[in-house]
Amino acid sequence: MHDVIVVGARCAGSPVAMLLARRGHRVLMVDRSSFPSDAISTHYLHQTGLSRLKAWGLLDAVIDAKTPPIRKMHYLNNGIELNGFADPIDGIDAVYCPRRIVLDEILVNAARGAGVEVLEQFTVTDLVFSEGKVVGVRGREADGPEREFRASLVVGADGVHSKVASKVGAELYNVRPAAGFTYYSYYSGLDWGMHHKTGFNEQWFGTWPTNDNLNMVAIICTKRHLKEFRQDPERRFQAVLDDVAPEMGAQLREQGRREEPLRPMRYPDNYYRRAYGPGWALVGDAGYHKDPITGWGITDAFLHGEMLAERIHEGLSGQRIMEEALADYNKERDEQSAGVYDYTTMIAELKLPPFFDAVLRAISTSDEWTTKMLGVIAGGVEDHEIFAPDSLKRLYDDAGVPEEKRIYDPF
């Protein structure tokens, strides 16, 4: 009998399991994959996410894996440029984009090191219920016989197609349609740093360095481009860079060498799921998913994983009734993620509403305001420091924006 079973061992599941085991709880973690293994991902770790790795004693392992530091961001959106970097968060003055074959193994090994029992290549086929409460899981390890494990709580950290969420009927809410689709791959021969560029034709591309001297290069287009893209993905991939940033498109063609196949990523609608119920909880994409364009998936998985582990510990240790602790986790998760969710789903449309166009144009006139905006994106500066009415007035005053061109209401 375990205290907790965690289904899914990647960026949400491993931190939950590790942190609970460090508190002395008996934890079983299962995953249908074996490690090290790759996963579809943006790879991007905001400074806020890196601060959690630092607190857990794992940041050095990411750096020691020769993950290159990034200390400047080049941001372009419909002709508006922001170039710079956010102020340090918890002493962290860079961001890192490790490949998942690197990051996930670090996380799984940390969970093992904390005392978590890890079963790889274990596919959960069903949950075990008793009197309406989840009390365990059933599944198979590779081609072996069906096995059953029991626990006080089962945590679903098994992604957007979560088996746990499906079996408990976790309801969706605040659903917003997915705006686009992604293709990405890895290129050698480029020295680009980090770029995040949106063109005028509902097209975006991003690039950042990752392990093994490679650059990840990704494109996002709105759904109206999908049919044409499918007919010739390689040509259309190149065409997006040529259209959004012609000089970089030429460099990709002349200097870049693609080292792996193009990877398509069609993602579901943006959503929240109810994150708890009798004997179960959800974390990561299993409970909350948004468009990948802002790269906040891994960081939110870390933040919410830590939050959930603390609430579970409170319940298991008798400090609080478990249901109350998990309800508080659900509420806090929703409140803390609301700003990122709104911003992400807005940016994902690949066209700026008039309010954000006016604000970003004003921000682009000042290094100070640019640093502050990049701090908002990084999670180190609160939204109100730019978007509250008095902050907007100071911004517009500093940028010399005429009164008739000032927009204060995003709606």
UniProtKB/TrEMBL annotation:
Domain of life: Bacteria
GO molecular function: FAD binding
The FAD-binding domain, residue ranges: 3-340
Pfam families, per the entry: FAD_binding_3 (PF01494)
Protein's UniProt name: Dehydrogenase (Flavoprotein)
